[in-house]
Amino acid sequence: MLKDKIESLSKAYFETYRSVRHHLHAHPELSYKEFNTSQFIQNHFQSLGIPFKVMAETGVVALIEGKKSNRVIALRADIDALPIQEENNTAYASKIPGVMHACGHDVHTTILLGAAKILHDTKQDWEGTVKLIFQPGEEKNPGGASILIKEGVLENPAPTAIIGLHVHPILETGKLSFRTGKAMASADEIYVTVKGKGGHAATPHLTADTVLAASELVVALQKVVSRDRDPLSPSVLSICAINGGFTTNVIPAEVKLMGTFRAMDEPWRFNAHKRMQEVAEGIATSSGAEIDFKIDVGYPAVHNDPAITQRARSIAISTIGESNVEEGELRMGAEDFGYYSQKIAGCFFRLGTGNKQKNIVSGVHTPTFDIDEDAIEIGMRMMATLGATL
Fold first, then answer.
1. Which of 80, 305, 335, 372 is catalytic?
2. Is 80 designated active site?
3. What dotted CATH number matches 186-296?
């Protein structure tokens, strides 16, 4: 059976691709600067004789054709790293100061490279075409997915569905989790500058108090998500930085704020943008200050197609057992996979990478993040099986 052959090859190639992961982890590159990573991926496909093309400068898109059929499935991995200084003391720790694969994109890339090898070896056993997408810039607006889509990554041939996975240290290695429908939130960045006439703190009546206006704005914005939002629709607005002033007795002429807005519902998302702007304008008028309120529209929410996700879950159960397939939680984190799921049926699932017995418990985006590498074999097996049989 094809399933057994894929499992056998996943185990046979595990050590090879663990070494690939070590190389990628030791040589991380920031968003849209993944030139060496891209070349490594290209070299891998050249060595296998798999056709590919470069998109968006550092993205790589390859095609593996099985037996003749109109079926086209896309598998996606992201390739960029984060501006974090690694604190792990491992042989494969980052060699690049201040840059680290702290979100597991080295793992995603490794898994898809391994799945590509398996799919290539078994192409006489399955039908259709598998499109392999290695995407740059997932960690930084506008999101590499949006750029690849504009360049036609979902065309020629056009996939009917796209699959992605993400490491999940909260989930023990050996397990997968799937969620149907709303899975992850949209993410927009908020940038505010409050300007006014500064002056002596002892004569506030002669100033436009920018600190007070900024404080009022922080509080008032919370009413948008607590009073304007449907209580059954999750949403988060967090102001995470306030910068202004330099001493105890001077009201500054300028205060800057930064934050993030997350939502699960697209119409509400953009209604909220309008309401936040209105709140800022009202406080500006009442305080005599000027408020420059900008929203950098980011990734849309990730929506998992019910039919595709249910099929993927069923394949996972037959691959690793029902006891190892769990229901995924709703997450307010964001992923630019949402761009794909807006265009075609998508399934974004979680790969367990934690191991409490080995003390592998650090979360993503931390300087001590790592994985139980046994998860690589499971990931390769699952992505190859989905590519061949979904």
1. 80
2. yes
3. 3.30.70.360
Residue 241 confidence (pLDDT): 97
CATH 3.30.70.360-classified regions of the chain = 186-296
For 301, which DSSP code?
P
Task: Write down the catalytic residue from 86, 138, 305, 370.
Answer: 138
Task: For 214-274, give the DSSP string.
Answer: HHHHHHHHHHIIIIIS-TTS-EEEEEEEEEE--SSSEE-SEEEEEEEEEES-HHHHHHHHH
> What's the whole-model pTM score?
0.94
Averaged pLDDT of the chain: 97
Catalytic residue status for 138: yes
- Could you confirm whether domain 2-184+301-389 is CATH 3.40.47.40? no
CA-to-CA distance for 327 and 309, rounded, in angstroms? Answer: 11
pLDDT in tens, 177-230: 999 999 999 999 999 999 999 999 999 999 999 999 999 999 999 999 999 999
